[in-house]
Each structure stands twice: as C-alpha cells, then as structure tokens.
Amino acid sequence: MTTIPVGGEGFAxxxxxxxxxxxxxxxxxxxALKPTRAFIVSDETVAAIHGETVRAALEGAGLKTxxxxxxxxxxxxxxxxxxxxxxxxLAEGLDRKSMVVALGGGVxxxxxxxxxxxxxxxxxxxxxxxxxxxxxxxSVGGKTAIDTPRGKNLIGAFxxxxxxxxxxxxxxTLPVRQVRSGWAEVLKHGLICDAAFFDWLGGEGKAGAEGDxxxxxxAVIRSVEIKSQIVGEDEKEAGRRALLNLGHTxxxxxEAELGFGxxxxxxxxxxxxxxxxxxxxxxxxxxxxxxAQKAEAGxxxxxxxxxxxxxxxxxxxxxxxxxxxxxxxxxxxxLTLILARAIGEVFTDKAVDAEAVRAFLIxxxxx
Length: 367
Ligand code: NAD
Ligand code: GLY
Description:
Elements: E1 2-8, E2 11-19, H1 22-31, E3 38-43, H2 44-60, E4 65-70, H3 79-91, E5 99-104, H4 106-118, E6 124-129, H5 132-138, E7 143-148, E8 151-158, E9 163-167, H6 176-193, H7 195-202, H8 213-233, H9 248-257, H10 266-283, H11 289-301, H12 317-326, E10 335-342, E11 345-352, H13 354-363
The structure holds nicotinamide-adenine-dinucleotide and glycine (GLY).
Glycine (GLY) is lined by residues 137, 141, 143, 241, 244-245.
C-alpha cells in the first residue's frame, strides 16, 4: 500500500492510496472522513462488477448508502445525466455533510465530481477509480466536467476529492483495450518530465500495458507522484499544469472529428496526439528526430496508435485546425500546443504558427 499526498495552495490536502483490496477497505477509509451518508455514483458496467463490494464495505462500516448508475460511456458526461444524478441525490435526502463516492472510470469521476461540486453548493466526494486512466490521471487533481455538443469538458468545476482509493485489483476486470488506453496517460507522464520512467515503461515495466499487476502498481504510483507534484504547484492550470495536456490538443481534435465514437478511445487519441506532438516538435527543430522516433516507438510498443493512417477515417487538415483553434486551451485565436525539447522535457507554446501545423498535418496524411 502506498500513500501519495496531494496538496497545494488554495486546496485542502488529501491522500491517494494505491494498493490492492482497497474496494473492500473503502468503508473504514470513507467512514474516517465522518460523512452523514456515503452515496455511490457509478456506471452500469462497473456497478454490476464492483458495486456490491463497495456498497457492502460502506454499510459494513456503519454508513447509510445507496447507488445511482448512469449508462457506461462518454455520452453520460451530459446535462441529462448530471440532472438525473443530482435529482437522485435530492430524492434520497442527502444533506450538506453527505459524501458522493465516484466508483468507475474517468466518465463517472468527472460526472460525479461535478455533481458533488454543485449539490447544495458543494459536498465532499471520494474517487474510487476503476480504470487505469482514472487511477493515473482523472481521479487526481480535481478537474470535473461534462461535455456539450459544442465540445468536450466545457462545463465543469475544480472540486478536489477528499480521498482517492486506487485499487490495482479492480483493474483485473478491465478489457485490455482500456488498460492500454490508460497506459497512454502513463507514457505521457514519462514523456512530460521523467525520461527514466519512460525507459522503464518500455523495458522492465512493459508488461503493465497487458495488465500485469506488479508493473501496473508501480506505473500508477509513479504517475500519481508526477501528477500530484504538478497539481500541487498549479491547481487551476495557470501554468505548469497545462503540460499534462501533452498530446491532448491533437488528440481532442481527432476525437471530435470522430464524434467521440469507438474508433479511438480517449487514451488512444492521447497516444496518437503525443506521437504527433513529438514529430511536430522535431519538424520545428525543437527536439531531435531521434527523440521523436523513440517516443513513437515506445507508444507503438504498447499497442497504441501513433499514425493517422491507423485510424479508419480520412481527416481534413482544415477541420482539425478548426477543432484545435476551438479547443478551450487556445488563447486569442492562436494555437496552443505542448511541445517537446526532449523526452522528459516539454513546454507550452501559446503562439504556434497555424500554417506550420497545417503543413505538418498534410505531411501526416490529412487531406
Ligand atoms: P470510462 O469511464 O468510460 O471507462 C471506460 C469503460 O471501462 C467503460 O465502459 C466502463 O464501464 C468500463 N470500466 C470501468 N472500470 C472497469 C472495470 N474495473 N472493469 C471493467 N470495465 C470497467 O473511460 P476512462 O477512460 O476511464 O475515462 C475517460 C474520461 O476521463 C473522458 O471523459 C476524459 O475526458 C476524462 N478525463 C478526465 C481527466 C480529469 O483530469 N478530470 C483526465 C483525463 C481524462
Ligand atoms: N488531465 C489533465 C489535468 O488533469 O490537468
């Protein structure tokens, strides 16, 4: 069991506990926070697999509980499901000292976290992430959001959890595509600021991409350490936190063009986006071609996409640029991208020449 503190200016410190058997221990750990109630928000898939374990654990610790579920998938990050969750919390008579327990992947964490931020002007919540992506990224740092037809994550709030319980055993039921998808965010952390970690992920640690629990545990711990440090320095993304968006501006544009369907998971889009960010950096003379190739090889070795040609759809450079300019990370109409000087050394460029990006996208195979 490893406990990683997360804390910084302007928000109360909390712990991310990484280990095995944490779903069964959730009762005692949540009860220690002394809520009047602990109500689970989950999706239908996760609730069917792990809901009863967590419900029994909470009840076993003397907590009055219950569960509300939403359909599995990104479409549940919607006003409709947010309203349904909030309405259920009201119908159940939860009060301002009640706690929301988000049991699931990033979709549930983002939705339940936003519901907790809004309910009675804000109640506490605990993240119990059950996907690798949620354990290494979305459960830590307090970003909560839903999507609208105008874009992803555009309606949200910063609302830090009181506790995060990352149970490695919960990942045993995760489909391998979802494990790899989370592995993309793990690789991203190495690419951002830890070249030795990136090397480990492609060597001794690579079994994690196939679900090996020991490698997964080490990868989750190092990822949470990295994310904790960055979020502690810059909760509201005024500066350094933006580095965590490596691969996301390209990735979001691709996801949006694909209608957020099954063609690319979020993690796969981030993997492809990271490879593109490194190739674009090399093209601009910012990092070496060798580092761009090494980044791409490490991503590909984990079974993740690195080239547009691997996606079964033709992309228009113009449409992708439009998506990138419309991304909320763009300021004043210029393109903002996280670019690389080397593996483990990335930076924010807020004035990227859109023409250079257009030429790059055409080289990459966009029309
Ligand atoms: P997800 O929550 O949709 O989970 C993926 C699938 O796995 C779902 O079908 C789910 O039901 C299933 N699942 C979850 N846990 C399982 C388990 N243990 N066993 C079997 N199946 C399981 O997707 P995700 O990849 O976890 O999260 C993606 C979302 O996270 C996106 O909406 C993205 O925007 C968001 N995100 C948020 C942040 C943040 O900082 N808040 C960071 C990264 C991503
Ligand atoms: N996933 C990016 C962030 O949390 O800032």
